[in-house]
Specification:
Layout lengths: L1 H15 L1 H4 L7 E4 L3 E5 L14 E11 L1 H14 L13 H16 L28 E6 L18 E2 L3 E2 L9 E2 H4 L5 H9 L5 E5 L7 H12 L3 E7 L7 H17 L2 E5 L6 H6 L4 E2 L7 E4 L3 E4 L3 E5 L5 H6 L3 E6 L1 H18 E6 L5 E4 L17 H10 L9
Parallel strand pairs: 3-12, 8-9, 9-10
Antiparallel strand pairs: 1-2, 2-3, 3-11, 4-5, 4-15, 6-7, 8-13, 10-16, 13-14, 14-15, 16-17
Helix pairs in contact: 8-12
């Protein structure tokens, strides 16, 4: 009865406190001994490690060492020690906890063989860190304040994102570097990234699986295009998106983005060479190796090839307003080249290029060497899914997508 009661309680919360039920801690971080950290977009689950039988996510992490790790660890502590963090015993009953422990013991006693992503050759274990190709660069941690998620009974008041002390050369050469305070005169990690976008003078590369640009993001893109900035965006296609309503939020802006001159690519749901392309730099993973649907989950922003943001955030209003997020900004042309090259190598064979044809219709250009044909409707998606998008898409509020 404990499980049923807790389910009823969650449902009641959804209806009586809808705003709070929409919010979540979306940060992803793994820190070892305050010496090394892995961070990016990856959750802990089979689908994020090439181990699911059906759908797997294409994701991106960075391995960090040096002073930035202490700042990342501090961001973890700010959440762990916050009044908003509850011990698990406060959330589930003792009976449920015992059942979970028994289930874990059963699964641990009969481990299943991992997929390719979980079984590197024995010669690569343990990882020899001194042989890795490290890129040493200035880095800055951006972290939303835990208070972005209000306590029960609190108003939803904006809280400033925090940044580690230090500077990053976010302005053009010849200008003084911007301080963390200057960069983050804003309410969230996403607002900090918008400040970065406004510094672009040459090129923006955006990878966002759930891409729902609200008015502020659209305005920043429009201003960048007016400055002559080339903008390329990789996001999910309807077929590769595990959140179709989020795709609806993107689809309502798609034509306007194209009319601005933004280059749009949508991930093919059955990838050709994502594994080899994204692993060329040792920073990514993709699902399936041809045996399952691939779903984009990478979050990446590259500004003028010299500033790179990697983290948990999407370029959408949910990340901006509802979720807490974590990102690292890296000032390095070498890292910018590595990140851009990995994406560039994967695009021709693994994405649909969306354009407006001479008749004014949207057209999806087929991936290179795929044997597929160009399409005038959402490719690879079922009729039912396309109909659902048309019916429910206009009704969904962007702030919740």
């Amino acid at each position: 009865s404990g499980s049923r009661a807790s389910s009823i309680g969650r449902a009641w919360t959804l209806f009586t406190d809808f705003q709070r039920a929409q919010q979540r801690m979306h940060n992803k971080l793994f820190v070892a001994d305050n010496a090394m950290a892995v961070m990016g977009g990856r959750n802990l689950g089979d689908a994020y490690f090439d181990a699911a039988d059906d759908d797997n996510f294409v994701d991106l992490d960075i391995l960090a060492a040096g002073p930035v790790v202490k700042d990342l660890s501090h961001s973890f502590d700010s959440y762990w020690n916050n009044v908003r963090a509850y011990p698990v015993q406060a959330l589930i009953s003792e009976k449920e906890l015992l059942q979970l422990k028994a289930q874990f013991a059963r699964e641990d006693s009969q481990p299943q063989p991992g997929g390719p992503g979980l079984a590197p050759p024995q010669s690569e274990q343990p990882m020899e860190l001194n042989r890795l190709h490290w890129i040493w660069a200035q880095a800055l941690v951006l972290a939303d304040d835990p208070a972005k998620i209000p306590l029960e009974g609190e108003d939803h008041a904006g809280q400033q994102a925090s940044a580690a002390a230090g500077t990053l050369p976010v302005r053009q050469p010849g200008h003084a570097p911007a301080s963390a305070a200057q960069l983050l005169n804003s309410d969230s990690v996403v607002d900090g990234l918008l400040a970065l976008i406004r510094t672009a003078r040459q090129e923006l590369l955006v990878v966002s699986p759930y891409f729902v640009p609200g008015d502020e993001i659209m305005s920043a893109f429009r201003a960048a295009r007016d400055r002559g900035v080339r903008i390329r965006v990789l996001t999910n296609s309807l077929a590769s998106n595990d959140a179709p309503l989020a795709h609806a939020g993107y689809a309502r802006h798609r034509r306007a983005l194209l009319e601005m001159g933004i280059e749009l690519h949508e991930l093919r749901s059955e990838p050709a060479n994502l594994r080899s392309a994204l692993r060329a730099g040792g920073t990514g993973s993709s699902g399936g190796a041809g045996r399952s649907r691939a779903m984009l989950h990478t979050k990446l922003l590259v500004v003028d090839g010299r500033l790179v943001a990697v983290g948990s955030m999407n370029l959408d209003m949910r990340s901006q307003l509802q979720n807490t997020e974590l990102a690292v900004l890296i000032a390095s042309r070498s890292f910018g080249r590595l990140a851009s090259d990995n994406i560039d190598d994967s695009l021709p064979e693994n994405s649909w290029r969306v354009e407006i044809d001479p008749e004014g219709r949207l057209i999806w250009r087929a991936p290179q060497d795929s044997g597929l044909e160009d399409a005038h409707s959402e490719p690879d998606a079922s009729l039912g899914l396309r109909l659902m998008l048309q019916l429910l898409g206009p009704l969904a509020p962007e702030s919740l997508l």
